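Structure first, sequence second, as always.
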């Protein structure tokens, strides 16, 4: 979902080549208002959304896609490195954020990670989002803090299960409960909220 035809055409040409045919563009639109309808019609595995499309804008497009096709993975993109739009996109339901300066061959690993259930963010952006602020405190017990630190570190479910001496199913249940407690929708946003609240340094 991007209103820059040259960028879309570049992805259409280069993604199949750089991924040995594993990734290809199946549809595109530069109209944020039509994004959800296009996704509903094509049902892709993953959607890239430019946050700076004309009104109603990329954030609204992410929200609409999440509402109408909740199982489709969404990754936001922007030419800006400011953390605020990325955080808004995560709150709207995006599973990750990538800079539009990325080369096509650099897109594959993070996109595959998103398809595998992970959230992706550039390291510099994550550091900016994790700078402590005076956000409202969240009361977490010791186990919840250990889980949150592991999530923020990008640890896999199986590794977290081993560290906490519980099953993978229990880790998934604990993670879902933690996300609810933090009032967030995914791991990336949980890490960001925790960083803003200073929970990762306590």
């Amino acid at each position: 979902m991007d209103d820059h035809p040259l960028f879309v055409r570049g992805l259409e040409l280069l993604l199949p080549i750089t991924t040995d045919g594993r990734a290809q563009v199946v549809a595109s639109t530069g109209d944020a208002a039509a994004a959800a309808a296009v996704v509903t019609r094509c049902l892709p595995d993953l959607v890239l959304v430019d946050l700076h499309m004309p009104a109603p804008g990329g954030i609204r497009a992410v929200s609409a896609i999440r509402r109408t096709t909740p199982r489709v993975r969404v990754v936001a993109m922007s030419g800006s490195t400011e953390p605020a739009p990325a955080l808004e996109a995560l709150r709207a339901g995006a599973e990750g954020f990538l800079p539009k300066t990325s080369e096509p061959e650099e897109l594959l690993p993070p996109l595959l990670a998103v398809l595998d259930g992970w959230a992706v963010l550039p390291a510099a952006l994550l550091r900016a989002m994790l700078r402590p602020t005076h956000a409202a405190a969240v009361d977490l017990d010791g186990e919840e803090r250990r889980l949150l630190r592991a999530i923020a570190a990008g640890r896999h479910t199986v590794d977290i299960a081993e560290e906490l001496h519980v099953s993978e199913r229990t880790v998934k249940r604990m993670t879902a409960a933690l996300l609810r407690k933090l009032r967030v929708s995914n791991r990336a946003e949980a890490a960001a909220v925790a960083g803003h609240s200073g929970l990762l340094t306590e």
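Margin note: The chain has ten helices and three strands.
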